[in-house]
Please model this.
Amino acid sequence: MNSPLKVGIVGTGYAAQKRAEAVQEDQRSQLRYFVGNRPENIETFSQTYSIPVLDSWQQLATHPELDLIIIANINRDHAQIAKTALEAGKHVIVEYPLAFTTTEGQELIQLAQQQNKLLHVEHIELLGGLHNTIRHYLPEIGEVFFARYTTTAIQRVAPRRWTYHKDLFGFPFIAGLSRIHRLTNLFGTVASVSCQSRYWDAPETGYFTSCLCDAQIRFTSGLMAQATYGKGEAFWYSDRTFELHGDQGSLIFVGEVGKLIRGKEETPLESGPRSGLFKKDTQLVLDYLFDQQPLYVKVEESLYALKVAQAAEQSSLTGQTVFL
Ligand code: NAP
Ligand code: BLA
Model:
C-alpha cells in the first residue's frame, strides 16, 4: 500500500465532516478532493479542510490520483457511486446502506472481489458503547427469547431534506439498517419477517412529514424480535430503547443507560458515548489496508441485514409474512 493513501469524499454533511477530520488526522491518509451539493456547504467544506471541490461524483470516483473513495451522501446514490469507483479500481467506504436492494449489493461485492479492492460498509452501531455493553452482559441473561428495539424521534417541523424524502432516503429499515443489523449481529439468521409501515405525506411533494415502521422478526433460533422505527411530526416522544429478555434475566437500555435484571437484583450499566465512531471506523479501515488487521464487520453481514430489511419492505407492501 502506497503511503499516504489518497482519499476523496462524496458529501459534506455530518458523516463527511467526521471522515474528513479522521483522514486528515491520520498520517497514513491524505484528503485530496470532495464533491457536495449546495454551494454554501461546498464553500464551507472546501475552506474548513483546505481541499478543492470537483464538479461531479463521476469525476471523483474515477479520478486517477485517488486510492480510496468515501461515500457519505444521500442513500439513493450509494450503489451507483460505489460501482463507478470499484470499476475504476478504487477502494470504497460506504456509509450504510450499501444499496437499496440485495441484488445490487451482491453485484457490488462480486465487483470488489474481481477488482481485489476493499468494499467496506460502515456500521458504527457495532463500535459504540451500547453494543459492546450488550455483548458483554448477554451471557448473564441466559437464553434470549425476546428482543425489542424501538427508535422514535420527534421532529417539529419535519424538514424538507433528503431524510424525509422517500426516494432519496429509501425504506426506513434500509436507511436505518443499524436497527436490523444490531439484531442480526447478536442473534444470527432470520426465519421470517412481518412488517407494517405508514407514511404521512407532505401533499404534492416527494416528501413525508412522518414515517412509522414496525417489524416482527423470527430468528431461526426461535427468538422473537420486534423492531420499531418512527420519526417526524406525528411523534410526541423520542425514544431509543433496547430490551433483551432471557430465561435468566433481562437487559434494558434506554438511550445509553442500562440495567441488568436478575431475580430481585438490578445492576446499573453505563455504556460509552455515541461519538468518535466515524473516526474509529476510518482508523480500522486504515489498519486493514496497511497492516491486514481484520475489520470489525464484513460486507456480507451488511448484505444479510439488507436482505432482512428488504424482506420487511416486501412484507409491508404485500401484507404477507416473508420467509427467508
Ligand atoms: P447529511 O448531514 O444530511 O449529509 C448529506 C449529504 O448529501 C450532504 O453533503 C448533502 O448536501 C448531500 N445531499 C443532500 N441532498 C442531496 C441531493 N438531492 N443530491 C445530492 N446530494 C445531496 O447526512 P449524514 O448524516 O452525513 O448522512 C450521510 C450518509 O451517512 C447517509 O447515507 C447516512 O445514512 C449515513 N450515516 C450517517 C450517520 C450519522 O450519524 N449521521 C450514521 C450512519 C450512517 P447539502 O447539505 O449541501 O444538501
Ligand atoms: C445514525 N444518524 C444516523 C443516520 C442518520 C443520522 C441519517 C443513519 C440512518 C439511521 O440509522 O437512522 C442523522 N443523527 C442524525 C442527525 C442527528 C443525529 C441529523 O443525532 C442530529 C443531532 N449522529 C449525529 C450525531 C450523533 C450521531 C450528532 O449526527 C451523536 C453523537 C450518532 N447516528 C449516530 C450513530 C448512528 C447514527 C451512533 C448509528 C446508528 C445507531 O447507533 O443507531
Observations:
- Residues 126-272+307-323 form a domain with the Dihydrodipicolinate Reductase; domain 2 fold (CATH 3.30.360.10).
- Residues 299-318 form the longest helix (20 residues).
